[in-house]
Amino acid sequence: MNQLSPNSTMSTEPVFLDHLLMNIGRKIKVVTINEKLEGILTGVAIDHIQLTIDHLNYHIRFQHITYFVGKP
Fold this sequence. Notes:
The N and C termini lie far apart (52 Å). The protein has one domain (14-69): SH3 type barrels. It contains 1 helix and 5 strands; from the N terminus they run αβββββ. The protein is elongated. It has a 5-stranded antiparallel β-sheet. A hairpin with a 2-residue loop joins β3 and β4 (56-61). By secondary structure, the protein is mostly beta strands. The longest helix has 8 residues, at 14-21.
């Protein structure tokens, strides 16, 4: 019997990810498909970022981010 394992694909944007990584620990503005958020970029993962706003951690998936404003 064959065992099934989860399989997912995700498009990556290496330059976008690199620019985010250069802003870890800095205040950035993130524009999503729904709203604009401003906070400290406290984490970058393969599929989302962590933005800390007023001691709350927001985990925002890359596919929801339109663009961000930070210092390269």
